[in-house]
Write a structure and sequence with these properties.
Blueprint: H1 4-14, E1 34-38, E2 41-44, E3 49-52, H2 67-79, H3 90-102, E4 108-112, H4 115-130, E5 134-139, H5 157-160, H6 180-183, E6 186-190, H7 194-201, E7 206-211, H8 227-238, E8 241-245, H9 258-262, E9 268-271, E10 282-286, H10 288-291, H11 313-355, E11 360-364, E12 367-371, H12 380-386, H13 389-401, E13 404-405, E14 414-415, H14 422-438
Parallel strand pairs: 3-13, 5-6, 5-7, 7-8, 8-9
Antiparallel strand pairs: 1-2, 2-3, 4-10, 9-10, 11-12, 12-14
Helix pairs in contact: 2-11, 3-11, 7-8, 11-14
């Protein structure tokens, strides 16, 4: 594909923006400047068209440029047009009502601009409630950019060592500038390892466990039967706050989040991405006894939540339209998402088998990942030991050249939207067959 304009724009950006992009995890090869999205498709600055499975790191559950979401935004622009920044608004009240109706564990909710901000607030509430600073996080999980959780995503095994249980892994920050004393409060264990969680919980200093109920930043690593239920039991036993990071799972797998699928109720949960179909919005919600720390009468226990742009009317209007559309017709949108996911999974699995390529496709609803290994991974060690990372990247880049866009980094989640049609899935399978022949 010709990418002359994309490269030119990138080189101009690099003169004034460190790395040439404003979120450095977007800096990948090939360099593509996307200029438009509609439905299941995106176009770049050179006019190349792609079926999009990256979905901007997964928020586009309805598809790009959704007409109903756009109409809600335009209505707010015409009637209100801006942020007031003083007093309550009916829009934030309506969105709060929807979230509390949809998500089983949420009795009250607050809104932020990003999932990372919501994660930050959740940790503060847990510490205020328990008086303990310790945090348990998952190796291979991503829960935001702030100091308390910016550790151990795709950590090389020669850094953290072989799988251990019970026990924990070396804390490896993913950013410079995190103070050493902060890292001392972080405990890293593997997903699906209850024994290690209990081993650490016994020390009595753990305030919260923060995890994605499905690890969706290293693909799709599903919880084993009884794992999330076991975490709930341990948290209740040791007085630990259980926090589900549903930034990726929330409103994509079900209106009630993955917690409504697995039947496990966290104390707090955070949302982002799909809740507003691509508009910048985060949320933190949970039981009233925890959310009331934002207005606690004791100043020593009151947790600050502030932000000029919290619940800005534009993303709030987009979120209301998104959630209402997902709920319409008894949630038929989810039936469509799951059906598209099933069709793609069956088709890809058949292609890999026909070509004699060892691969396992793991899927939850509309989110999926192809692992070039002979089994479904249970944790990061499984992925790092058995998945062919190099083949994964070559596979993704070859698909991009055929007009199928997956983020060109190994193990990154693929996302299907309501806008993806049977024809899109068929074209994807046809072009994948071509790519597999070349690989």
């Amino acid at each position: 594909m010709n990418r002359t304009n994309s490269i030119r724009i990138f080189e101009e950006n690099r003169k004034r923006i460190p790395g040439g992009v404003v979120s450095l995890n977007r800096a990948v090869e090939p360099t593509i400047v996307f200029v438009r999205g509609n439905g299941s498709r995106v176009w770049d600055a050179d006019g190349n068209e792609y079926i999009d499975y990256h979905a901007g790191f997964a928020p586009y559950v309805l598809g790009h440029n959704d007409a109903d979401v756009n109409a809600a935004v335009q209505e707010v622009l015409a009637s209100q047009g801006t942020l007031m920044g003083s007093g309550p608004t009916s829009l934030e009240g309506r969105l709060a009502e929807l979230v509390c109706e949809c998500v089983p564990s949420v009795e009250q909710v607050q809104f932020t601009n990003t999932g990372s901000e919501a994660s930050y607030h959740a940790v503060r509430i847990a510490r205020a409630h328990t008086g303990r600073n310790g945090i348990i996080v998952m190796q291979g999980g991503y829960n935001g950019w702030h100091n308390d959780v910016a550790v151990n995503v795709m950590t090389p095994l020669d850094v953290i060592g072989p799988r251990v249980s019970p026990g924990e892994y070396k804390v490896v920050p993913i950013s410079a500038g995190i103070p050493e004393h902060v890292l001392k409060d972080i405990h890293v264990v593997n997903f699906n390892d209850l024994e290690s969680v209990e081993h650490i919980a016994r020390n009595g200093d753990i305030g919260c466990i923060l995890l994605e109920p499905i690890l969706q930043n290293i693909g799709i690593v599903l919880p084993e039967e009884g794992y999330l239920q076991g975490l709930r039991k341990l948290c209740s036993q040791y007085g630990i706050v259980l926090i589900f990071d549903e930034v990726k799972t929330g409103f994509r797998h079900a209106l009630g989040g993955y917690q409504s699928v697995c039947g496990v109720m966290p104390d707090l949960c955070i949302f982002g991405k799909a809740i507003a179909n691509g508009y910048p919005l985060g949320a933190i919600g949970g039981r009233k006894e925890f959310m009331q720390y934002f207005v606690h009468p004791d100043p020593a226990k009151k947790v600050l939540i502030a932000g000029t742009y919290n619940a800005h009317p534009i993303p709030v209007a987009a979120a209301i339209a998104t959630v209402e559309k997902l709920a319409r017709n008894d949630g038929q949108a989810y039936e469509r998402l799951y059906a598209s996911g099933e069709k793609l999974q069956q088709g890809l699995t058949a292609l890999f088998e026909a070509k004699g390529i060892t691969a396992t496709l793991v899927r939850q609803g509309s989110a999926f990942c192809v692992y070039f290994m002979d089994h479904q991974p249970r944790d990061w060690h499984d992925v790092a030991e058995y998945h062919d990372m190099g083949l994964d990247v070559r596979y993704r880049k070859a698909l991009i050249e055929e007009g199928i866009y997956h983020f060109p980094l190994a193990t990154k989640q693929g996302s299907i939207s309501v806008a993806h049609t049977d024809a899109d899935i068929g074209e994807t399978l046809s072009k994948t067959e071509k790519v597999l022949g070349k690989l």
